[in-house]
Amino acid sequence: MEEIREDIITTTEENTENPEQTIEAVSEDSIEMDFEVTREPVKAKKRGVPGIRRSGRKIAVATIAACAVLCSTIIGSNKFVAMYPYALTMDNEPICYVESKEAAEEVMAELVQSFSEEGTEVKAVNSDNRLQVARAEDRNVDEDQLKTKEEAVELVAQAAEETKDTDKPLEFTITSTKIADRDVTLDTVYEKDETMLAGTGYVKVEGEDRKEKVLEYYTTTNGEVVDKDVTVLEVMDEGVNEVIVKGTLGVPDGEDWRTYEGDPVFNSGDDLVTTGKQYIGKVRYKLGGMDLTRGVSCLGLVKALYAKYGIYLPMSHPGMKKAGIGVSYSNARPGDIICYKAHVGIYVGNGKMLDATSGSGVSIRSVSTKKLVTVRRIVGN
Length: 381
Hints:
The protein is an alpha+beta fold and 381 residues long. The strands form five sheets. Strands 13-18-14-15-16-17 form a six-stranded antiparallel β-sheet. A four-stranded antiparallel β-sheet has the order 3-5-8-9, covered by helices on one side. It has six helices and 18 strands. Helix 2 packs across helix 3. It is 19% helix and 30% strand. It folds into three domains: 116 residues, no CATH class; 70 residues, Resuscitation-promoting factor rpfb (Resuscitation-promoting factor rpfb fold), CATH 2.20.230; 109 residues, endopeptidase fold (from Nostoc punctiforme) (Alpha-Beta Complex), CATH 3.90.1720.10. A hairpin with a 2-residue loop joins strand 1 and strand 2. The longest helix has 20 residues.
């Protein structure tokens, strides 16, 4: 990032005796707003008075007395409350007055802080030299014209804001930095499980944020952040990627299995068979049961598996025999329903079917064609 280094403030001196100016440019480490005015000391002439010898002690007493009188005169006057009042100007027009050069510098420093990102250290400032600090043309500034630091900061900020909608808006641009700790959430890693239904999944590994110490760069214009950059200084903890396992069975066309959260779609009988095989030897037989956790009957198994894909079949033998379309056994495909007079199962291929019996629970066995009534295809797959 290119740093902006320009003089933020200039000082003008008028009607003075041999003024000297010192203007500090903005550096990378600090902002100096120092305006030093010096005068050649006036040397007193030595005079000798015969017979009179003044000691150094008497001279000091006289000097202190003179200073006391001068201070009393200044404090008691409403017209001369500041020896050298300073004006804060924009485009060479006074905005307000403060009591001294030091007070003016404090106002500008406070303004810089208010226009920079909170909590940062200012590195460079650019205001096109439109904001300036100058010794007031008239030293006799009335007391009610002098502003406190807080009042002056508010007035200068208000004057800058009033230029916003003009042809020549003031752009008070500040570059600042700060060191901070931040947490970075790492990308999620997805693993595919081809035996699980689409829209289902589980967290395999819990994720942990990466811990970093960073240097943040801010560029603000009139207090608004217009650019931000970050440099990593140190990685304190690498963190851990979260790992999520997601199912792929029945992912709708055009959907990403990693992010899909809806119901699965029955794309093929092979998907249905794959889903059904998960329950072999794990689900017991239960008369009239339709719960793949607590137990199923033969009708309940077929109904529950198709229900996972949003297809709802009748819970009766007559109704099941009329579902979908009839096909010959010789044309049977995985997912077709094998129907007997009082028993049903799902064809898995190679003369085998998946069903639920009182002796074996959910299992696979050979299709018996002797008592076969019909084969029903629910979808054209």
